[in-house]
UniProtKB/TrEMBL annotation:
<comment type="similarity">
    <text>Belongs to the bacterial ribosomal protein bS20 family.</text>
</comment>
<keyword id="KW-0689">Ribosomal protein</keyword>
<feature type="compositionally biased region" description="Basic residues">
    <location>
        <begin position="71"/>
        <end position="80"/>
    </location>
</feature>
<dbReference type="Pfam" id="PF01649">
    <property type="entry name" value="Ribosomal_S20p"/>
</dbReference>
<dbReference type="InterPro" id="IPR036510">
    <property type="entry name" value="Ribosomal_bS20_sf"/>
</dbReference>
<keyword id="KW-0694">RNA-binding</keyword>
<feature type="region of interest" description="Disordered">
    <location>
        <begin position="58"/>
        <end position="88"/>
    </location>
</feature>
<dbReference type="GO" id="GO:0003735">
    <property type="term" value="F:structural constituent of ribosome"/>
</dbReference>
<feature type="region of interest" description="Disordered">
    <location>
        <begin position="1"/>
        <end position="32"/>
    </location>
</feature>
<dbReference type="GO" id="GO:0006412">
    <property type="term" value="P:translation"/>
</dbReference>
<dbReference type="GO" id="GO:0015935">
    <property type="term" value="C:small ribosomal subunit"/>
</dbReference>
<dbReference type="GO" id="GO:0070181">
    <property type="term" value="F:small ribosomal subunit rRNA binding"/>
</dbReference>
<comment type="function">
    <text>Binds directly to 16S ribosomal RNA.</text>
</comment>
<protein>
    <recommendedName>
        <fullName>Small ribosomal subunit protein bS20</fullName>
    </recommendedName>
</protein>
<dbReference type="GO" id="GO:0005829">
    <property type="term" value="C:cytosol"/>
</dbReference>
<keyword id="KW-0687">Ribonucleoprotein</keyword>
<keyword id="KW-0699">rRNA-binding</keyword>
Length: 88
């Protein structure tokens, strides 16, 4: 329980930021899952299209400080590796 006005505000602001961050992370994970589903179904063209969208969402999450830059790099690298293996 917050004892001061500023502590109450911090709780409110933190809750708002957390929900916003959760939606961005959820969108990012959904786009990553979409790429992996296309790879599983052996549809290279669709996988490449969804890869572009997934990379944009990963980069946006990294720019906003929701995920670390190394984490973003690792996610992009693994997705690109899967799509490239499918293409070759």
């Amino acid at each position: 329980m917050a004892n001061s006005k500023s502590a109450t505000k911090r709780i409110r602001v933190n809750n708002e930021k957390r929900t916003g961050n959760q939606t961005i992370k959820s969108d990012m994970r959904s786009s990553m899952r979409e790429v992996e589903n296309h790879v599983r179904n052996n549809s290279a063209d669709e996988a490449k299209e969804s890869l572009v969208k997934a990379v944009k969402k990963i980069d946006k999450a990294q720019q906003r400080g929701i995920i670390h830059k190394n984490n973003a790099s690792r996610k992009k690298r693994t997705l690109m590796k899967k799509v490239n293996e499918l293409s070759s």
